[in-house]
Every structure is written in structure tokens, then in C-alpha cells.
DNA sequence: GCTAGAACTTACTCCCAGTAAGTTACTCGG
DNA sequence: CCGAGTAACTTACTGGGAGTAAGTTCTAGC
């Protein structure tokens, strides 16, 4: 049986790592972090558990590898949309829109990303934060674009605003996946832009 | 030895439940969800593990009991501040301020609340959502107060805004606890209010 | 005192992350 | 073609923690 369906020969490390990562992404996406055992992943790939440990170190390590890759895709997608926009106002909207569209198009990816809360304890927390920091940085850049140059906000304010936007978009994404009839990405992006655009111009240095 | 330090007699159920809950709150707060074992809690209370299972059903059950209680306190505090405000603009600021102050004053409580992400998978997720829903509802109420009556936003828009604010405040809270020198609650509340106040008035029915 | 039931315990099972130590297949120099 | 070296991979385990079955002890009320 195994000989017909899976004449699994040895692969070199890079190929095997990719194979494991893909399976892990799928299974984590389906069953969540807690619901997935390393034996599950191993069985799915058709490989024994210690091999995964050799390549990824731990369950957290494997999960973080998935997380980093998915975050990377998402970040690229959003960043591209932002960079392609003609002006600051469009950039804000385009960024939101790209975010929500990506999440609609990659639902299993989002399951993994949401589960990152799983890692709020443990040594993996820093890695998770790093991966989020890239987003915060992108948002902060956009915020600086939006704030009028003649009334510069201080760093704390930039951070506060960037964190707020990051938190808002994440919660909206979670809400949309759990909602029976979520409003379309365009509507959410539009509303969010309406909510934030004015305020970005009137930030006062307290 | 046990007779001198802990002449632990039997207590009636309600008293024991309280005792367990308090210990659990403390230990979860110190070590997080993953880092806490049921044996730890049992040992701390001076009771055996099955008793805890009899009263709280499961580890998730115990954690959720802590969560619900802390959320309740927090919600009450914020709701009081909002209700005491003279007008909508003040209510927004007062609500944010109460939120961030409470979290400053109850750091171990917040550790537990943050760990709720832990429960994003499993049957506990709905309970977590319910407890969060109360907040969303409070925020939605405030949002309705803020939106001018002559240009009513639709329900989707109210939800989008409420979810955004909930997400923003949660992420800001997490950021502040992890930050070495977080800005004071007043500053965060002020900045957030500046960011959102204008937008709340210009919501358009797309 | 005696009994009914609540409060509580001992002593397990099972599952899963992680590991020690070994085995098999590919590769490259001769 | 052949042996040696190494990368790829496995079997068979440990340890720890969630959850449970089956009792045992205290106490309240008669």
C-alpha cells in the first residue's frame, strides 16, 4: 500500500522541511495549535516524529515557522497595496482592503495567525512579537505619512496610533471569520478609513 | 506540621470554591495558563486535584471562572466611568482612562485576561466571546451616543467601529505591559480619543 | 449513637511533547 | 565496483500533566 501510494524515498533536508511545513500549515489551520499533535504532523508527512524535532526543534518552533511564513505573505501583500497607492488617504484604504481580502482568500492561513495568541506565554512570545513588529512598523510609516509635517506627533503618539490600528484590524479580522454574514472587505476598509482618517490629521502634541 | 500551619478542616462548597478561585487567579497571573498545572493549584490550596475537577470541571473551566470574574470587575469599572461622564466626548475619554488605569492597578489580573487568547481553540472559545461581547455592547452603546442622530450609521458600521475600538484598547494594553516605559494612562486615553473622536462624527452610510 | 450524604483522597489511565541511541540509504574517493 | 563517511531517518522509550474511578472520612441531623 505504501509502496503504491507513497514510494517515499529520502529527500534532502530542504525539500523535507518544505513538505513538513506545508503539512503543518494545513493541520494547524484545520485543528488549531492545541488540537494538533506532532504525531499527527509526522503521520501526515509520512515521516517519524524525531525528524521534525531535528528540523524544527519543538512544537513552538514548527508553529512559529508557519506563522512567520504566513505573516510574511500577508505583510508583502499589504505593503504592496500601500506602496502602490497614489496618496496617503488612498494608501490607508488600500492597506486595509488588502488585509481583509487576503484573509478572505486564505482562511486557513488566518486560523494559524489567530492562534498566535497561543504563544503569549513562553519563550516564543518574543518571536511572535518580532513578527508583529514588522506590521506595526509599516503602520507607523503610514501614520507618519498621514500626520501633517507642521504639527509632528511624538514617538509615543505614533506608537499608540500604530498599535491601535494593528489591534483594530486584527480584531475585525477575527470578528469577520466568526460572523455569519460579515460585511465585504470594501465596506470594512471604508468604514475603518472613515473612522481614522480625520483623527490622523488632528493629533495634538499634548 | 500540617496541624500547626494548616489545621485545614473541611469547608463547605462555596467557601472552598472561593479559595480555589483566588489561588487559581494568582497562579495563572504569575505563570500563565500553560505554565500552571492543576496539581500546582491543588497543592497551593492544600487540597487534592479531583476536588477541583468536581467543582470546576476542567482546567479551562477553572480558567474561565477566573476570566469571567476579572472581566466583570473591569467591565464594571469602565461602565461606571462612562456612565458618570457628562457628555459623549467625556464618556469616550473616561472609558479609555478607566480601562488603562484598571490594568495598571491590577497587573496580575491583566495577565489572566491576556491569556484568553489561549482559548481561541476549543469549546471554551464561545464562553470567552460571550464575556467579550459585553464589552463590545458597551462600546456600541457609546458609539451610538457619538453618532449624530441625523445621519445614522447602519448596524454593520456600528459593529465595525465597536470591534475596532475593542481591538485597539486590547492591543494597547498588551503593548503597555510589555513596554519598558509606557506612556501614562492619561496620555494613551487622550491620544486614542483624539484619533477616534472626529471619525465618529463623520461616519457615512456608504 | 447512627446513618446519609457532602467533602475529600489515593491511585490510577491516557495522551502527548520531547529524546537517546541506533539503523538505513545515498555519495564520493579510490 | 567497494568501502567509509555522513545525512536522513526510525524504534522505543521517559516524563509530566490532564482527567477519572472508586473509594474513605468527616459532619449534620435525627
TrEMBL record, chains A, B:
Location of the DNA-binding region in this protein: 37-56
Q: Sorted alphabetically, which Gene3D superfamilies does this protein's record hold?
A: Tetracycline Repressor, domain 2
Keyword annotations for this protein?
A: DNA-binding, Transcription, Transcription regulation
Domain HTH tetR-type residue range list: 14-74
The record's annotation in Pfam families points to: TetR_C_46, TetR_N
Name by which UniProt lists this protein: TetR/AcrR family transcriptional regulator
Q: Which organism is it from?
A: Kribbella karoonensis
Amino acid at each position: 500500500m505504501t509502496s503504491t501510494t507513497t514510494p517515499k524515498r529520502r529527500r534532502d533536508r530542504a525539500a523535507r522541511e518544505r513538505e513538513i511545513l506545508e503539512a503543518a500549515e494545513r493541520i494547524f489551520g484545520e485543528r488549531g495549535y492545541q488540537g494538533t499533535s506532532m504525531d499527527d504532523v509526522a503521520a501526515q508527512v509520512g515521516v517519524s516524529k524525531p525528524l521534525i524535532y531535528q528540523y524544527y526543534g519543538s512544537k513552538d518552533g514548527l508553529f512559529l515557522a508557519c506563522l512567520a511564513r504566513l505573516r510574511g505573505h500577508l505583510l508583502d501583500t499589504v505593503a504592496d497595496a500601500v506602496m502602490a497607492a497614489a496618496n496617503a488617504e488612498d494608501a490607508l484604504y488600500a492597506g486595509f482592503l488588502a488585509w481583509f481580502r487576503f484573509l478572505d482568500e486564505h482562511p486557513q492561513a488566518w486560523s494559524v495567525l489567530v492562534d498566535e495568541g497561543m504563544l503569549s506565554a513562553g519563550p516564543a512570545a518574543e518571536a511572535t512579537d518580532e513578527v508583529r513588529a514588522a506590521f506595526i512598523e509599516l503602520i507607523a510609516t503610514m501614520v507618519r505619512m498621514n500626520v501633517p509635517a507642521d504639527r509632528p506627533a511624538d514617538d509615543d503618539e505614533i506608537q499608540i496610533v500604530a498599535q491601535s490600528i494593528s489591534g483594530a484590524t486584527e480584531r475585525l479580522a477575527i470578528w469577520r471569520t466568526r460572523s455569519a454574514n460579515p460585511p465585504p472587505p470594501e465596506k470594512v476598509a471604508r468604514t475603518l478609513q472613515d473612522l481614522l482618517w480625520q483623527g490622523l490629521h488632528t493629533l495634538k502634541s499634548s
